[in-house]
Amino acid sequence: MGDLPGYKGASLRFLEEAGAAVGDVLEVRTSWGTVTGTLVPRYLDADGEHVVLKLRSGYNVGLSLEELVDAKVAAKGEKPTFSPPPPPKPAPGLPKVLLIGTGGTIASRVDYRTGAVRPAVTSDELYSLVPELSQVARVEPEIMFDILSENITPAHWAKLARRVYRAVKEGVDGVVITHGTDTLGYTAAGLSFALGGVPVPVVLVGAQRSPDRPSSDAPLNLLAAVSIAGSAKFSGVYVAMHLGESDDKVALHRGTRVRKNHTSRRDAFESVGVPLAAVWGRNGLEHVADGLPPRGGEFKPAPRFDGGAALLKFYPSMPGALVRAARRSGSKIIVVEGTGLGHVSKEVARELRLFVRSGGIACMTSQCGRGRLDLNVYDTGRDLLRMGVVPLEDMLAETALAKAMWVLGTGARGERAKELMLKDLAGETTTRTFPG
Ligand code: ASP
Q1: Confidence label for 47 from pLDDT (cuts 50, 70 and 90)
Q2: Residue 432 belongs to a domain
Q3: Domain tally, the chain
Q4: For residue 133, what are the contacts with CB-CB under 8 A and spacing of at least 6?
Q5: Do 233 and 319 belong together in one domain?
Q6: 417 shares a domain with 364
Q7: Shortest-distance atom of ligand 1 to CA 103
Q8: What separation in Å is there between the alpha carbon of 180 and the centre of ligand 1?
Q9: 24 and 145 fall within a common domain
Q10: pTM tops 0.85, yes or no
Q11: What mean pLDDT comes out for the span 357-380?
Q12: Which end of the chain is less packed: N or C, by CB atoms within 10 Å?
């Protein structure tokens, strides 16, 4: 990462001219006065237009290049260093698990001096930080991306799906994907469709607290994910994250029915409308739900996505123009998160009708979080049905979006696309709503 991690373009040149490195105390002259502070690293995807300093007060300030005159290093800082122990030797005869790194908190460290969380731990390092992994599998770590999950797109899902496909052909016993938690549910849903019939477990895993913090959930989550991927008797796409606040159980959620429901708790993830797929304790799987697909079977990967779908959350006073904007930005399928049983205002309904008439597909989900749509109860719902809005039963809105992008990626359009949206392909809709 060099001396100026995360800096690029004009801001990188500005700092290089000043001979600055992250951690140095800089005196920066601006058009409105001089600012003194410690230079903070930036996220990998940050823009090239800002320099960020941590002030003595502890606050970070982002200075726009337009207002900067020059900078001088007032004091050199200590370089942050991190050297992981060598990776442990796996015991022979263990299952082979491919560990793919994509970034996120599970692969980050807090730089305690600057206070920034930075993607810094590679999957190799992660592996060596959790030595117990070598007791449960022969892990083959590999980094595919190093980004926070808010920057993951369907193009990344497609690359992941293709990598998993190759790994399965090469004979791995399971795959673990480390990923930021924010959009973990979307990626898990996308992969559930792209990896139809995958014959091994594919377990996505994240962490709410970075691995260098004593309260981190990274080691336990990772250990559970690798052990399940290597040894579970079932296959499919899942998410493994802390169960409850204790530090000894991990919940396994089905990839199409999982949601992050808390901003910071370690047990932020919940299975919605279905029981947990499994519960893992330090001695292995303690409980496995009935009906999970066994290992093996016919693998029908379809690793293509088309981003021409949108997800719109309805709200009181929502302008119909937002539907038009989605259409103009190229959306061929619009997933609406309606209220209650699946409703929107007259104005939005009118725009959806125009969208459907122009060949678009409008799908309805509910923002209630739990329960199932019923568009037959009120007039508004019946009107939506009459105009051809597709009711997606109890499918989660984010799963519906990922599915829409996948359906479009298969090349399906019109009636065929609608049929696919309605058909349960990866456990995304249930016939019986699980209480709770
Ligand atoms: N924003 C981060 C991400 O999703 C949070 C996390 O990793 O938990 O990448």
Answers
A1: confident
A2: no
A3: 3
A4: 88, 127, 139, 222, 223, 226
A5: no
A6: yes
A7: 9
A8: 4
A9: no
A10: no
A11: 93
A12: C
Residue 384's Cβ-count burial label (10 Å; 0-12, 13-18, 19+) is buried
Question: Do residue 271 and residue 137 come from a single domain?
Answer: yes
Show the DSSP H helices in 130-173 as ranges. 133-136, 154-170
Domain holding 357, by residue range, is 309-422
- Amino acid letter for position 160: L
Q: Does position 261 have pLDDT exceeding 60, yes or no?
A: yes
Catalytically active residues, by annotation: 105, 181-182, 260
Binding site membership of 262 for ligand 1 (Cβ less than 6 Å): no
Q: Are residues 323 and 177 in the same domain?
A: no
> What is the Cα–Cα distance from 88 to 410, expressed in whole angstroms?
42
Residues 338 and 277 in one domain: no
Q: Is the CB of residue 119 below 6 angstroms from any atom belonging to ligand 1? A: no
pLDDT tens track for 145-162: 888 899 999 999 999 999
Q: Assess whether the C-beta atom of 206 lies below 6 angstroms from ligand 1.
A: yes
User: Does 180 contact ligand 1 (Cβ within 6 A)?
Assistant: yes
Among residues 20, 41, 75, the one where a domain terminates is 75
How far is the centre of ligand 1, averaged over its atoms, from the C-alpha of 291 (Å)? 31
Q: Are strands 201-205 and 174-178 parallel, antiparallel or unpaired?
A: parallel
